[in-house]
Amino acid sequence: MRKETVEVFIEEKKLNRRIAELAHQINNDYKGKTLHIICILKGSIFFTCELTKRLDIPVKIDFMQVSSYGDGTESSGQVKIIKDLESPVTGKHIMIIEDILDSGRTLSNLIKYLKEAEPASLAVCTLLDKPSRREYPVEVSYNGFEIEDRFVVGFGLDYAQRYRNLPYIGILNFEE
Ligand code: IMP
Ligand code: MG
Fold first, then answer.
1. Residue 68: what pLDDT?
2. Which 8-state DSSP code applies to residue 2?
3. Residue 42 phi, psi dihedral angles, 5° rounding
4. Which residue, of 11, 25, 54, 116, has the greatest Cβ tally within 10 A?
5. CB 150 within 8 A of CB 122
């Protein structure tokens, strides 16, 4: 059995400071508009809560769940919609909230799908970005932190559905 350890990588205070900066930017950019947030389950729930609490523009929140990863740390298979939106996004200012941008496959497919509904505008907001892993180009409007190619957990991010509840972003290490 491999032993897993988690080392703190981005502490909670630093996450929330950066999220407050993103919220400030979004408040300015969307003045006078209603923002339709699309939280991508499950990883983005913590980020969505912390971000939307700090927004003072009118906000609506909807959820989608897609799958592209199995239980491992490497990508597999194609993006599949497990849970679709409740309300149509046609003519609305929508913002996809994603925990982490890796190869870009999930987001590039999702953007294609959502654009078919002809929203008034579409923005992408990610907490973390691993630019060195990109295979599919994605235009990101708001990003919290650029990180190296390390497998991270916590603040919503999981490894085999565990560690989502950690209040910080940690690096997952395996020891023999
Ligand atoms: P992409 O489609 O390759 O960009 O993968 C994005 C999805 O992969 C994210 O929404 C996460 O669910 C998952 N993912 C990518 N990197 C990590 C990581 O370091 N830790 C946990 N999940 C990850
Ligand atoms: Mg995810």
1. 65
2. P
3. -95, -20
4. 54
5. no
Question: Prior bond to 42 cis, omega within 30?
Answer: yes
Residue nearest to atom 12 of ligand 1 (CA): 43
Q: Is there an atom of ligand 1 within 6 Å of 157 CB?
A: yes
Structure tokens, 148? 């190296």
Atom 20 (ligand 1) nearest CA:
152
CA–centroid distance, 6 to ligand 1, in Å, is 17
pLDDT for position 141 = 98
The tokens for 105 are: 């496959």
- Between the CA of 126 and the centroid of ligand 1 the distance, in Å, is 11
21 or 68, greater pLDDT? 21
Q: Is the CB of 104 under 6 A from ligand 1?
A: yes
For the whole model, what pTM was predicted? 0.93
Q: Which fold has domain 12-149?
A: Rossmann fold (3.40.50)
User: Considering only CA atoms, which residue is closest to atom 16 of ligand 1?
Assistant: 102
pLDDT tens for 155-169 read: 999 999 999 999 999
Domain extent listing, the chain: 12-149
In the numeric block, the tokens 């609305």 are attached to: 92
pLDDT tens figures, 1-49: 679 999 999 999 999 999 999 999 999 999 999 999 999 999 999 999 9
